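User: Fold this; tokens only.

Assistant: Input:
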Amino acid sequence: MSIPKEPRQLMINLMYLVLTALLALNVSAEVMNAFFSLDKGLKNSNEIVEETNKQILSNINKQADAYKNDQNEAYRQAAIEASQIVEEFNAYVGKLWQDLFDAAGGPKDDHPEMPKRMKDKDITTRMFVLGEGGDSKNPKGVGFELERKINETREKLLALVDNNPELAKSIPLKVEEDWKESSTDKKSSWADWKFRQMPVAAVFPLLTKIQADAKASATTVLNHLFKQVSGEDIKFDAFEPVISASSGYVVKGEKYVADVFLSAYSTSAGDNTRILVNGKPLPVKDGKATWETTPSRIGENKYSVEIQVTNPLTGEVKSYKRDFTFEVGERSVAISADKMNVFYIGVTNPISVSAAGVSSNDLKVSIEGGGGVLKRTGSNTFDVTVTQPTDQCYIVASGGGINARKQFRVKRIPDPVARLGNKEDGSMGNGEFKVQKGLIAWLDNFDFDARCNIQGFNLVKVSKRADPVEAPNQGGTFQGTAADLVRSAKPGDIFYFENVKARCPGDKAGRKINSLVFRIK
């Protein structure tokens, strides 16, 4: 392209080039941000997989406790060791992640989740490929140790499952075997191929992906061990009467229904089994009988179960007996605040409402007074929000033959306490005083998640042999003249924080709170 001679055209062309460069920078920034979004998504997925692994390990422990033998105990120990191996490996990779973040300048001021030099490629090359005291001919980067750790961890996991070849195909944690073929410029090592000249931002999701592969590998091993400890053929060699009732507590006048069956029974057991309740035989179908009664007495009711099992080979009859109890009560309702017997304006107040003998589907709950609004959060839990102080606020529960009201008070959030640093008043060193950013409103001993803000205050400085100087300040942070007064503090000065106002959630206007006095030493 020829260079225009006209100055105006030359300036237009230069501006176009600058604009193109800026657009390229913006695209680059978006790509860098995309890497961090990917890293965050991988971490969230890792947390889900980790919870899954904990649940599988818990199930292995339950099976090993239920069916105790040397083989199951060996499976349990292998599962525990697999979890520890992956936990140690991921801790090592997590340290690499943090070391890279620190090496890249630490958190940015506007985006603390990102490092300052996230586009830098030299940092990753030096850290993962060349290393301290190394060079291109003799690389000593941590990428080589990472490669060794990946291989060691994979080998340890496979050893726990006797190097099962089918499982080996399902374990994702491994060093890519085709990295040489994938390398376009014939890299000399996996670390060189994986990390050389990679932007800092791009390496974070790579490390998190390696952690994800480790957790997924643990899942594969744990699932295999769980199948082994569960067993495929369970033989029942003990019998015990069992009651399965729809409810262990019924209301007077209603039926009590329970299934009575032999523990670990099979559907073929019915022809050889007799079930009796209080001496009376019950019809048996598929090894199970159903007994029902309508209790007339409030309180504890007892009944006896006898199960007679006939051995079809010897004709021997064995009898198993056991007594059971259930409670009979009358309908009642309980309404309780999960925090205290007060509703606070500006925060969510959780409550629980339960009624014995009444289904949660039939129970109707409402609120009266205090400008209250009720929101259901579970089968018997609710969130209450209120707007008007009063002593006449009621939670009303009805349905299923009950009608109950419970009174609550509605209050504003208590007054917060103004503090400078962690002090309400007293003496403070000159240097400590000058680095304070402003006043903070603290809610002491308040059980709810709420935050109050300082709206403003008057700052008065009194120095020896000088007239007091006063400065109003908007908000909690020192500004303008007030900030200048704080910076001018000297030993012997006295500072008064007067007319301090704060505003809490639910407040229509600010409220006056405590004043503060500090002597500079």
